[in-house]
Specification:
Oligomer: single chain
Structural class: mainly beta
Bound molecules: beta-D-mannopyranose
Largest sheet: 5 strands, mixed
Order of helices and strands: EEEEEEEEEEEEEEEEEEEHEEEH
Strand content: over 45%
């Protein structure tokens, strides 16, 4: 078997074969959604969430809208990556001295293991939307780092390793509301505290209209022999409001501000009832992927209609071929 993903094996990755006759490169789990309305006593909706393998099982950081409508992060576990036991309490962030350092709201987490530490990035509040960065080593003590990026900014996504000696973070400068614009930028840091060397990675637009209003990085990029495979969300502004779809791009492995191939077509757009109907209709919003380097299988966790958590699957070589075939290389 060709080894395209550079990374670990995950033999128990959640997986379902592509349905016979289905021609698209990304297909949905037939038992979607995997998290339904009112999943815990205090929460109304859990979506836009991030799951990682851990000791043969799975752990996750979940975006949970409480019954007062405000969003927070909860921790959860799963034996199979499909059914979850999610804490009813919020993640108890503390500062590096052990003092409680609670957030006023938090949403759209990404979760990544770098060396022996599990990092979370999310949309935090610093006098408006900003990037939160925190970490844990044991899923009990959660440290929220100081000196995060300046507001307004969302969709902060760390690369899973340093590149040329520095950590890299994708982000999407925004406004404090529903942001009718937005491109993806990249920043560097030696220590996850001081960020600089900001560069533009990619803009909204292109020939198609599905990403014409704004874009934002999705899950943590996957290292492959072709470059970094990044799924992202693209937004179209319709007369009925925003529509969120999922696209993909391949970034240069040593200089990820350079695009190698960018797919002109979306890979997934709201079609199913659980994507077109819910708290916010017509949203598919990818926050996490996990993979098995041995087989090239990728499972994507995405939020559907700001209500449900759903799963989609793809095969790395097929996605890369599709991205190259529909390449529309623009900044
Ligand atoms: C974005 C974020 C996401 C949400 C999306 C669609 O701005 O707030 O959490 O899924 O809008 O409502």
């Amino acid at each position: 078997m060709k080894k395209t993903i550079i990374g670990a094996s995950l033999p128990n990755i959640p997986w379902e074969e592509k349905p016979a006759g289905y021609i698209e490169p990304v297909w949905r789990y037939s038992n979607n959604p995997v998290i339904d309305w009112n999943p815990t006593p205090s929460t109304a909706r859990i979506y836009n969430s991030a799951v990682l393998p851990y000791n043969g099982e799975f752990v996750g950081v979940f975006r949970a809208d409480h019954k007062n409508g405000r969003a927070f992060l909860h921790f959860g576990r799963s034996k199979n990556g499909i059914q979850f036991q999610i804490d009813d309490n919020v993640i108890p962030w503390q500062d590096e001295n052990g003092k409680p350092n609670l957030v006023s709201y938090a949403y759209d987490p990404r979760f990544v293991k770098i060396d022996d530490t599990y990092y979370v990035t999310w949309c935090d509040d610093m006098h408006g939307a900003s990037i939160g960065i925190g970490y844990t080593k044991d899923f009990k003590t959660w440290i929220r780092l100081p000196n995060r990026l300046m507001p307004f900014n969302r969709n902060g996504v760390l690369f899973p390793r340093k590149i040329n000696g520095n950590y890299r973070l994708l982000s999407r400068p925004s406004d404090s509301g529903h942001t009718p614009f937005g491109d993806i930028f990249i920043s560097e840091s030696p220590d996850l505290i001081y960020w600089g060397k900001h560069k533009h990675v990619m803009g909204k637009g292109g020939q198609g209209w599905w990403q014409g209003t704004k874009i934002g990085a999705g899950p943590v990029p996957i290292e492959t022999s072709e470059g970094w495979l990044l799924f992202y969300h693209g937004v179209s502004g319709t007369c009925n409001g925003f529509v969120y779809s999922i696209g993909a791009v391949i970034l240069d492995i040593d200089e990820p501000s350079n695009i190698k191939y960018r797919c002109g077509n979306y890979l997934l757009t709201p079609e199913k009832n659980y994507e077109t109907t819910g708290f916010v209709p017509n949203v598919v919003f990818p926050c996490q992927n996990i993979y098995d380097a041995e087989t090239g299988r990728i499972a994507i966790y995405y939020g559907a209609a700001d209500t449900y958590t759903a799963l989609a699957f793809c095969q790395v070589d097929e996605v890369i071929d599709y991205v190259k075939k529909h390449n529309e290389n623009f900044k």
